[in-house]
Amino acid sequence: MEPSTISIKGLSKRFGKNHVLRDVELQIPAGCVYALLGENGAGKTTLIRILMGYVKPNSGSVSVLGISPQNDPFALRRRVGYVSDLPGLYEWMTVKQIAWFCSAFFSSSYSEHFARWATQFDLPQDTRIRHLSKGMRAKTALALVLASDPELLVFDEPTSGLDPLVRKEFLRSMVDLAAQGKTVLLSSHQVQEVERVADHVAILHNGKIALDGGLEQLKDTVCLLRFSMRDPLASPPATVLNLNSIHCEIIGRTIQMAVRHLTPEVLEQIKSEPELTDVQWIRPSLEELFILCTRESQAPPWQQPWNSKSPGGELLRA
Question: d(Cα 78, Cα 154) in Å, to the nearest integer?
């Protein structure tokens, strides 16, 4: 078995009393587009900065391309292309000048590669960085990284500020790079965009990995089960109580549960239960998985108090 491009074991990080990351475990394989998703403040940027050697964890171990980011960050950065959410560029340089400056640190093919990306991104090469729009700055940072032809590319919100056409071209290029054997780690809030390009995904919530794995495998492993109960005050049958549920929410009188490993045989048993109506099984999208992992679960109705004064016995919710 080939080693992972990125291996993270028991990683934790706190700033003062604020625990940003809690016992994070991830194995990122080579030659894939790996998406790291999470709400603002979930810990994505801190995790990426640890991977790049800019932040030291409180506990746990990290290996990137077989290198410890804390022990040898310079060796790591020669092999990794990294674009932060706020890339720092020399404001007084033109696009052409900053490409020339960066070419001194890489192989002789760097300038040629940069010229190709600059053309694709339609960069104004004689314009100073300070005069570029946010979108053009983002394109310049992307072109500078891609020109070095790194083994691993790490992007923190890379499509922010890009127009739809360039965003689409950039995401397509990520798939092409993975097909060439490169690994792409992509942190993004654009869940629908990520779904079109990612092979693997990890969802970070409150500093913990809520869900991770191959995207199609996760969709096959976790399903959405919806049903109503003929008697809303009754407890459900044992076939429902014994499910491996990771999330529950109430939508009117419909109960929606996210369930792991729901087999066709168990689903048929649930459909045949006389106490249940309108039983539906839905294969979730990545957006639905993301919402399930980041939205608070509700106690199912058979575990909640009921308001006897409300018409129809409506369920009380916190």
Answer: 13
Q: Which two tokens stand for residue 225?
A: 């089960």
Q: Across all residues in the chain, what is the average pLDDT?
A: 85
Q: What is the pLDDT of residue 181?
A: 84
CATH number of 221-313: 3.30.70
Which residues share a beta bridge with 200? 34, 214
Count of CB atoms situated within 10 Å of the CB of 233: 9
**Residue 199 contacts by C-beta under 8 Å, 6 or more apart in sequence?**
32, 33, 34, 178, 214, 215
Question: How far is it, in rounded angstroms, from Cα 57 to Cα 159?
Answer: 27
Mapping DSSP to helix (H, G, I), strand (E, B) and coil, where does residue 255 land?
A: strand
Which helix (H) or strand (E) is 121 found in, with range?
Answer: none
Residue 60 DSSP symbol: E
Query: What is the pLDDT at residue 307?
Result: 38
Please report which confidence band the pLDDT of residue 60 belongs to, taking 50, 70 and 90 as the band edges: very high
**290: exposed, middle or buried (Cβ count in 10 Å: 0-12, 13-18, 19+):** buried
- The pairing of beta strand 6-15 with beta strand 59-64: antiparallel
Domain range 6-217, CATH class: alpha beta
Q: pTM, whole model, 2 decimals?
A: 0.82
Coil, strand or helix: which one is 219? helix
Burial string for 18-38 (b: 16+ CB within 10 Å, else e) reads ebbbeebebebbbebbbbbbb
Degrees to nearest 5, angle at CA 227 with 221 and 233: 130
Structural domain spans, the chain? 6-217, 221-313
Asked whether the beta carbons of 5 and 150 are under 8 A apart, the reply is no
Cβ pair 50, 56 in contact under 8 A: yes
- CA atoms of 36 and 47, how far apart (whole Å): 10
